[in-house]
Structure formats: C-alpha cells, structure tokens
Sequence to fold (418 residues):
Amino acid sequence: MSTEAAVAADPTTTNWAEARSRVYEAGRSAAPPPVELPVAEVDGQTLAEPLTNLTDLPAFPTSSVDGWAVRGTGPWRLVGRVLAGSTPPPLPEEGTAVEIATGAMLPDGATGVLRVEESTRTADGLVAGTLRSAPEWRAAGEEAQAGEELLPAGTPVDPGVIGLAASCGYDTLRVRRAPRAALIIFGDELLTVGRPGAGRVRDSLGPAVPAWLRRYGCEITSADVVGPVADTLEAHVEALRQGLATADLVCTTGGTMHGPVDHLHPALRELGAGYVVNTVAVRPGFPMLLARVTGPDGRVRFVAGLPGNPQSAIVAIVSLVAPLLAGLRGRVMPELPRVTLAEPVPGRGDHTHLALVRVDPATNTATPVRHVGSAMLRGLAGAAGFAVIAPGTQGEPGDQVPVVPLPLLPGERPQRGV
Ligand SMILES: Nc1nc2c(c(=O)[nH]1)N[C@H]1C(S)=C(S)[C@@H](COP(=O)(O)OP(=O)(O)OC[C@H]3O[C@@H](n4cnc5c(N)ncnc54)[C@H](O)[C@@H]3O)O[C@H]1N2
Ligand code: MOO
Fold:
C-alpha cells in the first residue's frame, strides 16, 4: 500500500454527527464503479443509474379480461380468436369480433371488450351483450411511457424493483455491488469456543459482527473472519495487509486504545493509512476510528477500528460503518427517525450519548433498556436501537430525539409495550 497521508500523532476527536457525515462522504467518493448483473441477481444491490422505462408499459393495448374484442355495435360476427403472445390481424369491419384472452393484444379496430360471462350467443352464432362503460383493456403506456424515469439512481434494489425492471424488459441492471468486508479480531485473551472463565472471555464479536455487516449489505464469509490475532505488531500488520488485499472494508475489533498490547494505531501507520476519523465524542464507543488506505491499484479501502468492548463495537458499526457503507453503495445518508422518550435518559457531558432503547411501535415511544454497560450485550439483544442524546443535554420524558435503528428484519425483536 502506498502512503496516502501520515497518521496523525495526536488524534482529534470528532463530534458524532460530524463523524457520520464525514465517513459517508468518504464512502461516496470511494464508491467502486458500477457492475452490470443479470436482473435476477441484484437483490440487495443499489441502482447505479435511473431505472428508465424501455418501452411503453404495457407495450401494446392489452385485454384485461377473457371475452370478445368487438368492433362497433353488436351483435357481432366472430372472425377468429386471439391468444396472449401474438399480434392479431385487425378487426375487418363494423359488427365483427374475435375471441380474446386476458393479456392478449387488442386487434386494431377494436372498440371494446365484452366479458365472456356477460355475453350470450344468438341462435345464428353471433355474440351479443352490453359493453361496460369502463374499458376492459389496458391502453399502451397506461402504466408508464417509454423513456419515463421510474426510479432514481441510488435506489436500493428489492424484489419489487427487480419485478418492475423485468417487466420493463431489462435483462441486466447496472448496480453498485455489495462491498466486500473482512473482520480481524484482536485480543489474545479471547476464547473462540466454550465457556468464559479463568480470565478469558468469549469472543462475541467474531460471530456477531459479520451478521451485522451483512444486514448493512456487505458480503462477508466465514473465511473473511480472522483471529484472534497474536498481540504483536507484525501479526497485526500482516492480518490487515491480507484483509485489505480483497476487502473494500476491513473491520477490526479491540486494540483501539494505546495500551501495552494495542497495536492498531502503529499498524495503520505502518500501512500508510490516513484517518478519516480518529476517536469520536460519543459514549460508549469513544475510541472508534475509520482510516483510509490507497492500494497500489489506486483503489481506496477502509479500516474501521471497532473498540473491544462489545457494545462499543456495535456503536461504532452504527455510527461509522453504516454511513460509510451507504456512501460506498451510492445510497443516501441513512435518515434517523425520531422517537419520544418515555423515561429520562442521562446525557454524557460534551459527548453524544447513544442510549439503547426499545421502541413501542404503537406509540413511537422509546424506553431505555437495562444492562447497557459497554462490555455488555444483554441490553442490546433486547433493544431496537440507540436514542441519540446530544452533547450538553439530557433526555426528559416527552422529548423527541433521533434514534439510530439496529438493522433488524421484520418480525425480529417484537417490541413489548413500554
Ligand atoms: N486508560 C484508559 N483505558 C481505557 C479507556 C480510556 O479512555 N483510558 N477507554 C476504554 C474504552 S472507552 C474502551 S471502549 C476500551 C477500548 O479498548 P480497545 O479497543 O483497545 O479494546 P481492548 O483493550 O482490546 O478490549 C477492551 C475490552 O473488550 C474485551 N474484548 C475485546 N475484544 C472482544 C471480543 N471480540 N469479544 C468480547 N470481548 C472483547 C476485552 O477483553 C476487554 O475487556 O478501552 C477502555 N480503556
Ligand atoms: O466508550 Mo468505551 O467504548 O466506554 O467502552
């Protein structure tokens, strides 16, 4: 890796809101180029360009019922049948009709469609009945006109978007692909199996962080998770170098402080990394950082240093990693919904306090949860997100405050009333 900028010796702590927007901009300016993928393979990616309608939709006038396409007034003489999937000949003259299926193209000259169940046949085989006043066919371009922009660039692709793109006739879409992530666990004291005890704690971040990263749209497999890495500078540098070789984002856990075996900062210096943010005025999670490394190919990669205390690591994910990924994926900065506090939440002086809360969806009220020490995960496992208590303030019942939601899926964490 080439040296981009010297790692500052004296970290300058960044305000939490400023840190979010700075990492988002860093991600946006380093967003990898779009790729073109088959339309069935883009779920979860992001549109790199607007979804523009390729033809009128529907592309031709289409019967919306099974029945008879008729010309003029009845009764009508049958001259054929039109099934979906073909181009019919025109209806030749007044008083003629063709049998037509739902979805079939309306023949030129048709002035109406009569539902089969609202028709009768006369003794001499003519079709009779009364047309409804509302048309029983869909006009070409009724849903969208050719060239119309249906969705803007930056739209997250979900199954609804995939279906719409396919119906427009797209075979492939240009998307911003999911960033590739890697995770490096620092800390010799960590156990990766079995029960904690005798001075050793279980590594809770190795299993949990990749799952959170996937929720934010990263690609990360078990092979991308490395550690615990030995507490030496050489081992740290080597692990980071390997991660950066393939990943757009390498997350590390632990070692963000300056203790005797905290090697993250010296390792970043050795790799020629430049800080985007180095410590954030937020509690918990203060020592979090984001650094940028430019590879020999000119491509920018990021290192997110998540503090070792497990809840603090998740605070760093929601504070730095989530906005960075939104930028890298060409999406808008995630907006923070607002909730009403049901109980007081203390401030943390000149730091932003991210306070774990559960949220009652019926009333949109947030209640702080218990067991929220930075080394604990019990509170987090029952919370919907973090209420944001601004520096120099404290939360009072009734206050409206922003909340940083955890990326939970529908049905997860059913929120009990407060
Ligand atoms: N002198 C000071 N010491 C500390 C300060 C400070 O301001 N001055 N800040 C504290 C804060 S805040 C945090 S957060 C931690 C951050 O420390 P590190 O990022 O250097 O993390 P470690 O020291 O490696 O570990 C801290 C703690 O977390 C446990 N840990 C680490 N990794 C994992 C994991 N994967 N799974 C579960 N638990 C993990 C580790 O055993 C330690 O108990 O520094 C404070 N110190
Ligand atoms: O902020 Mo530390 O992250 O208090 O545990």
